[in-house]
Write a structure and sequence with these properties.
Elements lengths: L1 E6 L2 E6 L1 H7 L11 H18 L9 E7 L5 E7 L10 E4 L3 E6 L2 H10 L7 E7 L2 E7 L5 H7 L4 E5 L1 H10 L1 E4 L3 H11 L1
Parallel strand pairs: 3-5
Antiparallel strand pairs: 1-2, 2-4, 3-4, 6-8, 6-9, 7-8, 7-10
Helix pairs in contact: 3-6
Length: 190
């Protein structure tokens, strides 16, 4: 479990696939109306509070965004809301999933990597199959900006874990972690 707090009112928790198994939940089963989902959220927030060294008021309203990660894990972004925002209760919003970008050439792939400035919470992996390249990107943040930058160089689409699982099983992995960063560094060395 990786915990980060980029601001006083925002906490980002990345759960790996083993973390999800240990918590006995899947991304697909997450629903704030479910007591099991709330149990997981309270457990995660308790761990975050301990690691960050601060007490988190679980009765405070918050926006919870869940995004599946390419490795089968999940990123949870907690935004603590102030009293001026009208929201009857805490709300869980599930993000679209992963972004798959299919490239016909290495040149397009390198050009896309140069254009796409990603943060440390964005995960990317690269696969090859018969001279075609597939980049799988997941992020706890909105994928629309990344998709907008990539679509000039690749055919892009948002998808759920089923298609990413198929890619992992049938395509050859080139870079499993931080592929975009690796591609940017490699291009600058050429």
């Amino acid at each position: 479990m990786q915990i980060n707090s980029p601001s006083e009112n925002r906490i980002i928790v990345e759960l790996s696939a083993p973390d999800m198994r240990e918590l006995d939940i899947t991304y697909e089963a997450m629903d704030y109306a479910s007591i099991e989902t709330r149990r997981v959220i309270w457990t995660v927030l308790d761990a975050a509070g301990k690691q960050l060294g601060r007490e988190l008021d679980l009765s405070r309203r918050m926006l919870i965004e869940a995004s599946p990660l390419a490795d089968g894990g999940c990123a949870l972004t907690f935004t603590l809301l102030d009293s001026t925002i009208r929201l009857n209760r805490s709300t869980l919003i599930k993000q679209a999933g992963n972004l798959i970008c299919d490239f016909q050439s290495l040149d397009g792939l390198f050009a896309a990597a140069e254009q796409c400035d990603v943060d440390s919470h964005t995960h990317s992996s690269l696969y090859e199959n018969n001279g075609r390249y597939r980049l799988i990107i997941s992020s706890p943040f909105d994928l629309n900006l990344i998709e907008h930058r990539m679509c000039e160089f690749a055919k892009c689409r948002k998808c759920e874990n089923l298609e990413t699982d198929f890619t992992r099983e049938h395509w050859t992995v080139i870079t499993e972690n931080n592929a975009l960063e690796s591609l940017s560094r490699h291009k600058n060395q050429i």
